Amino acid sequence: xxxxxxxxxxxxxxxxxxxxxxxxxxxxxxxxxxxxxxxxxxxxxxxxxxxxxxxxxxxxxxxxxxxxxxxxxxxxxxxxxxxxxxxxxxxxxxxxxxxxxxxxxxxxxxxxxxxxxxxxxxxxxxxxxxxxxxxxxxxxxxxxxxxxxxxxxxxxxxxxxxxxxxxxxxxxxxxxxxxxxxxxxxxxxxxxxxxxxxxxxxxxxxxxxxxxxxxxxxxxxxxxxxxxx
Length: 229
Description:
The chain has helices at residues 2-21, 60-68, 77-83, and strands spanning 53-56, 73-74, 89-92, 95-98, 101-104, 107-113, 117-121, 128-131, 134-139, 142-145, 157-160, 163-168, 171-173, 178-183, 189-194, 197-199, 203-207, 213-216, 219-221, 225-227. The chain is α/β, with parallel strands linked by helices. It has a single domain (25-227), classed as Pectate Lyase C-like, CATH 2.160.20. Helix 2 (60-68) links the parallel strand 1 (53-56) and strand 2 (73-74).
């Protein structure tokens, strides 16, 4: 009897300790959350001779230096996307990029950000918009809207009729209306959002594609709703 009482007491202590250390986000959602925002793995810039590589740099001196070393360098992510073909890698150097990025009918493409890449779009545009793409990876790109006087009704990232998309180690923040929106009628599938921070949005996730979205280990706070159903 004493053993049973002791065991029950230890179980209660464990529960109290677990509640004490669990992250208490402002929106109350702790599932999919981790104790701190995951640190992305470091990707080094490949050699200039690497085929199918486009480097983005919006600093004139950095761009000139990379160009002198033999790299194909462009000043914006949008311009790199326009130049890229299937199988390309776009490597974005640290900096703040004022643009919205559209990927349409593309595949087998990686967009890799150095630490310190921030993309800011007007609040009447989605920061990233993907349509009918497949096998896309977006890594370590922070997305936010320019805060203005008019209300923001657009999203951090929209994924429309796409398959096999991975968004990882990104910070998606307001005034975005929705952090990640998955749409489409063409059987979108395997949309993974992993190890991201989603905050200061009205809704963190909106998936109208019958469970195409697969979130994992994301930190969510300051969102009115976790999912819009």
